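Deliverable D4.2, example record:
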Amino acid sequence: MLPRIPPLLVLLLLGPASAGAGLTGPSSYWECILHGMEDVKNDRVAQEIMKICLADFPESLSVDEPLDGTPTECILKYGEDVSSAFAAQQIQTACNVLYSRP
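Output generated by the structure prediction step:
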């Protein structure tokens, strides 16, 4: 079995270069939050991930079209293994922004 690479390390190594097209990584701040906060165990790491996402996607806080699915499904998927309260809050916000219908 291959070792699991921590999401923060992936974000730091790949950064916006892989995220530009949205095919191999996040294409917006909110997607960056979802991918980066998965499995986060403490608030300090979650805050650093948020800073990275803001730096990589400073102008993509709005969403044109909601994604398929519901906020609840998103929260259950991305928040399952998170023990940081700050990360859980960020995931909830990201899911509401990305999956809510007006």
